[in-house]
User: What shape does this take?
Amino acid sequence: MIHIFLVDDHKILRKGLKIVLELERNFKVVGEANTVREAIDSISSEQKIDVVVTGINLPHESGLELIKYLSTTIPSVKSIVFSMNLECSYALKAMEIGASGYVTKNCEDFELVNAIMEVQNGNTFVSQIMIEEIKKNKLCKSEDEIQISPRELEVLNHIVEGWSNKMIGDMMYVSESTVNTHRYHIMKKLNAKNTADLVRIAFSKKLVTSN
Assistant: This one.
């Protein structure tokens, strides 16, 4: 069972999210909050929370403050930004300070469900529309000092898009073990500790390439 906490200042949106998410047999919404302070107080007292889904534009404090608090104080709790904001700077900032996912509010139901499952499994998830915005804003040219091959960059793009190693292998017509090898080399070159760290570094180093 994945225990989820919702943070948004629109009660009707939280109500709708709870209904949608609890259609999944292994999802349970265990709490809700209107502000960052309410969220911190509730999360601190709640025994079991796996994933926090939070907006950014909250009363009094930004949802980014909540993400920063969780990543430094309760790192076992994963956070996903759920926002209408398509500015690349917000997504990059959220990932840099510890968010494991960034999902836009105009997404389909399954996208948020997939995001929650991915971050719970230790991966990251960024809405495809957000990835395209980042590419469109030319944050996507590789830096010369980082020696990553074109094939590795292709694998890195698919990792950022949330594909599993097996799916990447099928897409690139190579074995899953080959993808594992590419992933290992990429993480070593970028000194990434895990997949979430790898995605944050890819964004910050502007290594996401255009299609």
In short: Residues 138-204 form a domain with the Arc Repressor Mutant, subunit A fold (CATH 1.10.10.10).
